[in-house]
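Changelog note: in this version the structure field was regenerated for every chain. One regenerated record is shown below for reference.
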Amino acid sequence: MFWFLLFAGVTVVWIAVLALLGLRIWRRGKALVSEVSVAQAKLEAAQSVTESASTAPGHHGRHAGSRA
């Protein structure tokens, strides 16, 4: 009976440790996904500003000075 209780106790401790590690990894992954989505939103905003500036009136494109 002693060995069974010892085995059960060790098993419970291992399950608790694995659950805590899984929770920690889950939180880290969630934070990483959040950071990536914020960075993607910033990139898209910067690209839309760049595109609107390149299509602004008076802008002749990249090769305005090299007309044939």
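Spot check on this record: The first helix runs from residue 2 to 54. The CA atoms of residues 59 and 65 lie 12 Å apart.
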